[in-house]
Design brief:
The chain folds into four domains: about 5-55, no CATH class; about 65-225, no CATH class; about 230-335 and about 445-465, Immunoglobulins (Immunoglobulin-like), CATH 2.60.40.10; about 340-440, no CATH class. The chain has helices at about 35-40, 65-95, 100-125, 135-160, 170-190, 200-225, 355-360, 390-395, 435-440, 455-465, and strands at about 5-10, 20, 25-30, 50-55, 230-245, 250-260, 265-280, 285-295, 300-305, 310-320, 325-340, 340-345, 355, 375-385, 400-405, 410-415, 445, 450-455. It is rod-shaped and about 135 Å long. It is α+β, with helices and mostly antiparallel strands and about 475 residues long. The strands form four sheets. Strands 7, 8, 9, 11, 17 and 18 form a six-stranded antiparallel beta sheet that branches. Strands 12, 13, 14, 15 and 16 form a five-stranded antiparallel beta sheet that branches. It has a four-stranded mixed beta sheet with strand order 3-2-1-4, with helices on one face.
């Protein structure tokens, strides 16, 4: 008489899977009646085989439920969103970040993208057949990475925004944090780490690695920007004067300098110089403007370390012997930013337009200010890109605007802000540019004033007057 194989289906385990034993030998774990039939087919057993059910009959399949499927789907969506975000940041920063630390951060985000993809694959096993022992820990690690990425992006967004706004990326990051927290709650309830041999050591290693990553981000994105400043120096030299034959005009050559004395390349956003005559016996130290102008043309030019820009300017003074002047002065001012902090569009140097043309084109968007400010000006404007894609995402779109304001004494003013941000135009308050200084290493360069007594220059010119 033929002996039929003994089939035993054991009670569901913590994951809802039921172990199948055939003739005392384990045949696998199943999560549904359909999976059980596959096991019987592989054992060449008939569909109507006698089965001993322990811990529940043929209708008890806790692993085969909509709740389990939904849980796995939500986790997979969160992991895929995190992987997509990490891939976008990593691909851009690993290849195009302006600093070495930024590129290292890019490769770190690519590594975390790979971790999230592994977690997605582990989810298919864990929430179905659970054939891989380490699929649970892989899910746990993926949830931790998701929580870390979402939290870092949210914190950087809040830290870099003066006025936080609702954006698609912001909603995505909030969703990532919520999804990661929920996933960790589910996985911790199921104690998925118990299959690991040394879970404590692994947890310590993960914590140390996370702290190192946070330290690296804080060092590159917070400490370095606050400690490093570009060093650009400006100076002027008043040269030899000369008179025409009639003695009615005096010509004076002035040499203007702008030098990068620092260790990093910079870009000159805007520059201006003044050559003036100080009025004699004036208690208010008033000046007569001889000539203003731009020293660096076109603006946006790169200035490498130890590189210098010089220009000779000749000014003309009418009736030099009849005028009562005390001194001739010359001075240079400029705005520069570090090349490793941001980039500007190549079209910036050609973006200059007069206010009248901007008004006709409906692009007159100069910030409101008192009447002396809203006079004629020449404006340069360009969108900017941060030093890394991580900062581009958390800071949003920004642009730089340079106004060359024509007044009794022309001035240059630089503003870096969001295109939608309209704030009061204030040339005096130093807090106006503090944010740009901290973020981009923006430097205001005020060169030393060169000054020569007017009578001394006149005597020297008369001594060399052509006969």
């Amino acid at each position: 008489m033929e002996t039929k194989p003994v089939v035993v289906v054991e009670p569901p385990d913590d994951n809802g899977l039921r172990k199948v034993v055939i003739d005392g030998k384990p045949a696998g774990k199943v999560w549904s009646r359909h999976e059980l039939q596959k096991v019987l087919d592989r054992a060449h057993m008939a569909a109507d085989a006698d089965i001993e059910w322990h811990g529940g009959d043929r209708t008890v399949w806790p692993a085969h439920s909509w709740g389990r499927r939904i849980t796995g789907t939500v986790m997979a969506v969160g992991f895929l969103a995190t992987a997509a975000m990490c891939t976008w940041i990593g691909m851009n920063d690993a290849l195009d970040a302006l600093t070495f630390a930024g590129r290292v951060t890019g490769f770190l985000f690519l590594f975390m993208a790979v971790v999230e993809l592994i977690a997605v694959a582990a989810g298919f096993d864990y929430w179905r057949s659970h054939k891989k022992a380490y699929s649970g820990p892989a899910l746990l690690f993926g949830a931790l990475v998701e929580l870390f990425v979402g939290s870092v992006l949210l914190l950087m967004y809040v830290a870099n925004r003066d006025r936080p706004s609702v954006a698609l990326c912001l909603l995505l990051w909030i969703g990532m944090v919520i999804c990661a927290a929920w996933s960790l709650w589910v996985l911790c309830r199921r104690r998925v780490w118990k299959v690991l041999r040394y879970p404590g050591r692994i947890a310590v290693g993960a914590i140390v690695s996370t702290l190192l990553v946070i330290t690296n981000l804080a060092y590159t994105q917070v400490y370095l920007p606050s400690m490093s400043r570009p060093l650009v120096q400006g100076s002027s030299e008043i040269g030899m004067p000369s008179l025409n034959r009639e003695g009615t005009k005096m010509y004076l050559r002035v040499r203007l300098h702008l030098k990068n004395s620092g260790q990093v390349p910079v870009h000159i956003l805007g520059s201006i110089y003044w050559i003036q005559l100080k009025l004699v016996s004036d208690p208010k130290d008033r000046y007569k403007l001889l000539k203003p102008g731009e020293l660096v043309k076109p603006p946006g030019r790169e200035l490498s370390p130890q590189e210098e820009i010089s220009e000779d300017v000749v000014v003309e003074i009418d009736d030099p012997g009849k005028s009562a002047y005390e001194a001739v002065t010359a001075q240079v001012e400029a705005y520069a930013f570090r090349q490793d902090r941001m980039t500007i569009d190549a079209a910036y140097k050609d973006s200059g337009e007069w206010r009248g043309k901007l008004k006709r084109e409906g692009k007159d968007d100069d910030p409101p200010g008192p009447p002396p400010v809203n006079k004629e000006y020449f404006r340069y404007q360009s969108a900017i890109s941060q030093s890394s894609e991580l900062l581009n995402l958390t800071r949003g779109k920004e642009r730089v605007t340079v106004w060359w304001l024509y007044r009794s004494r022309p001035v240059v003013y630089v503003d870096v802000a969001s295109p939608d941000d309209r704030k009061p135009f204030n040339l005096i308050d130093p807090k106006e540019q503090r944010r740009a200084v901290d973020r981009y290493g923006l430097a205001f360069v005020r060169g030393s004033m060169a000054q020569m007594p007017y009578t001394e220059l006149l005597k020297e010119a008369q001594a060399h007057r052509p006969m």
